[in-house]
Amino acid sequence: MSSNLSKGAIELVKIVFTLILVLIIFSVFIRLFENSFIYFPAKYPDGFWQTETFGLKVEDCYFTTADGVRLHGWLLTNENAVATLLWCHGNAGNIAGRLDNLAKLKALPVNVFLFDYRGYGKSEGQPNEKGVYRDAVAAYDYLVSRPNIDPDTIIPFGRSLGGAVAVDLATKRACAGLILESTFTTAKDMAKSAFGPIPVHWFIKTEFNSIEKIGQIRVPLLVLHGTEDTTVPFKLGRQLFEAANNPKEFYEIQGADHNNTYFRGGKDYFHKFEKFITRAVR
Question: Rounded to an integer, what distance in angstroms lies between the CA atom of residue 176 and that of residue 156?
Fold first, then answer.
C-alpha cells in the first residue's frame, strides 16, 4: 500500500516538475522572440514609394529621437489646413503601404505627418515598446519645430498598434484631440485574443497599457472600429472608449474588418474625421 503511494507521489512530482520545466522553457522562448511576434517591419525599398503615382507631393523628413535613432517620415501639407494629423501606423509594413489612405486624407483640411517607427522603412534601429513611444515623441517635437505647423492643432491619429503609441504620446505632449482606430486595451488582452488557451499573456513583458493611460487624457477623442475586425476584437476598442474621459465619440463601422475601415466607411468615414477635427481645434 505504502509502496503504491510512494510510486504515485513520485509520478506526481515528475509531472509537476515536467510542467514547471515546460513553462520555464516556454517563458524563455516568449521573452527571446516576443518582439518578432509583435512587430512586422518592412525595410526600404520594400513597399510602394512612388508617392507621385497617387498625386501626392510629400516632403521627406528626417529627425532624431532622444536616444539617437534617426527616423524618416512624410509630411503632406495643405494650404487650407486647420490641423495636423500625426499618424502612428500599425505594426506591419511601413509608410509606403499607406499611400491610398494618405491620398484620401488629402481631401480633408489637414496636414498629415506619417512617420516610420525605428526599424521600419527608412528609419534606423529595431522596434520595441519604449522605442516606439520615443519615436512618436520625437515626431511630435519635430512637427513643433517647424514654422509652418501650428503646435496647438496637432492631433495624433493611431491605428491598431499605433493607437497604443498615440495614447502614450497624448499623455506626454499637448494635443488638440486624439483619434484612435482599430486599437486595443492592453498587450495582454491582445495576447489572450490571439493565442486563446495558450497562456502567452503570462509571460510577455510588453504592456501597451492604453486602458490605464487613457484616463489621463482630457482632449476630444474619436474612436473608430470595424464591427467585423478579426485582428483586434471590436469589444477591446469599445472597452478602451468606455474608459476614456469626455468629450468622446465612438464610430462603429458596420461590416469593416481590421484593414478596410476607410473603404467600408466610405464618405461617412472621412466626414467623421473632418467633423471631429474641425470641432477639436475651435
Answer: 9
Active site residue 189: no
Catalytic residue among 72, 89, 123, 160: 160
Beta-carbon contacts of residue 140 (< 8 Å; ≥ 6 apart): 86, 154, 156, 169, 173
Identify the active-site residue in 46, 150, 201, 258.
258
pLDDT tens digits, 181-201 = 999 999 999 999 987 887 877
Please say whether the beta carbons of 180 and 223 come within 8 A: yes
Single out the residue of 203, 142, 198 nearest to residue 169, CA to CA. 142
0.70 exceeded by pTM: yes
Catalytic annotation on 123? no
Among this protein's residues, is 257 annotated catalytic?
A: no
Phi/psi at 3 (5° precision): -65, -40
Q: What percent of the chain shows pLDDT beyond 70?
A: 94
